[in-house]
Design goal:
Layout lengths: L2 H11 L4 H11 L4 H12 L6 H28 L4 E5 L2 E8 H14 L4 E5 L4 H7 L9 E5 L3 H10 L8 E6 L3 H7 L9 E6 L4 H9 L7 E3 L7 H8 L9 E3 L7 H9 L8 E3 L7 H4 L13 E3 L11 H7 L3 E2 L1
Parallel strand pairs: 2-3, 3-4, 4-5, 5-6, 6-7, 7-8, 8-9, 9-10, 10-11
Antiparallel strand pairs: 1-2
Helix pairs in contact: 1-2, 2-3, 3-4, 5-6, 6-7, 7-8, 9-10, 10-11
């Protein structure tokens, strides 16, 4: 392994360690001074700066990208990367087809400390191949999309090197991939699951989530067409007791569904609930006015429903600025 690859491996292992990034920048100065300057500038921009210094560093970082990004990114392009984003001096997120990840993932992740991947799937086979390799453990955030997303989700659920995956987002054509994921024996580190559904039966989805084995902290089900029965199903999922955030925006919930959520004993750890864009009246909103209704609740979103502060004054007294109308 080259010295630079060793540095990248260390940065990937400690993504929050800015001192390590600056140490790598110092080591790079003799061979790639512009990249060293870029790392230092982007790291500095994450700290407290006076406005003039921030403007200067922003201009410096933008100029360095304009002059040198083509050279820095060319090796990634050759390996199939299509889109990317720099974070504190490095490419930490990129998009590519699943075939490119399977063929070149090891080299890609050795060139940059990539942790976030958006994957265009065809049939899921290449994702399965990639996730069977030890280097895949560097990936902690994954969005899967494309015609093969269902098969990809099912393959991911059984893959051996997905234990460090923390965030997963995908558009599911049906509930089959969801069922496989929530029962996965290997996705032990998954804490955030975001699902956008196309043709899945919302009630079957709720049943699938009832089989959940994951210790989820955040669950996003916006636009999932969940009705009141689906909401009631979620409240009965004992394995969702670890949830701190639940997003059910733009579903088909009425006051009955809101009341079921408010009465839930299985969602007692919930701190943030998003219900914007549903069909709730003042009565449904006030189901959360009592401190006994989701006792840890600190943030409640009820936007796009025409409610005013005066309509929900008791709820406003409970949550204050945590209530968003």
């Amino acid at each position: 392994m080259s010295d630079d690859a060793k540095w990248i491996s260390r940065v990937a292992a400690e993504p929050a360690n800015n001192a390590l990034r600056l140490a790598h920048a110092a080591a790079l100065r003799e061979t790639d001074a512009p990249r060293a300057d870029f790392i230092q500038a982007q790291v500095a921009l994450t700290g407290k700066l006076d406005p003039a210094r921030r403007r200067t560093l922003n201009r410096r970082a933008e100029d360095l990208l304009a002059d040198h990004s083509s050279a820095w990114l060319e090796p990634l392009r050759k390996l199939g990367a299509q889109r990317w984003e720099f974070t504190r001096g490095y490419v930490e997120s990129l998009s590519l087809p699943e075939e490119a990840l399977a063929q070149h993932g090891k080299e890609l992740l050795a060139r940059e400390p990539v942790r976030q991947v958006t994957l265009e799937t065809r049939d899921g086979r290449s994702l399965a191949e990639a996730a069977a390799q030890p280097w895949f453990e560097q990936v902690t955030w994954l969005r899967i999309q494309g015609p093969g997303v269902e098969a990809a989700a099912e393959a991911l659920a059984l893959a051996p090197h997905v234990g460090r995956l923390e965030v997963l987002s995908f558009r599911a054509p049906s509930e089959g991939g969801v069922m496989a994921l929530v029962k996965s024996p290997t996705l032990t580190g998954l804490r955030v699951l975001s699902l956008s559904l196309e043709e899945a039966d919302p009630e079957v989805l709720a049943q699938a989530l009832a089989s959940n084995r994951l210790a989820l902290k955040r669950l996003f089900l916006s636009g999932a067409r969940l009705g009141d029965e689906g909401a009631q199903g979620l409240t009965k999922c004992k394995t969702l007791g670890t949830l701190e955030q639940l997003a059910l925006n733009r579903n088909e919930l009425s006051d009955e569904g809101a009341a079921a959520l408010a009465r839930s004993k299985g969602l007692n750890a919930l701190e943030r609930l998003e219900l914007s864009g549903n069909d709730l009246s003042e009565e449904g909103a006030l189901a959360f006015k009592s401190p006994k209704a989701l006792p840890h609740l600190k943030h409640l979103e009820l936007k796009e429903m025409g409610l005013s502060d005066s309509d929900v004054e008791p709820l406003l007294r409970r949550l204050g600025k945590g209530l968003k109308l």
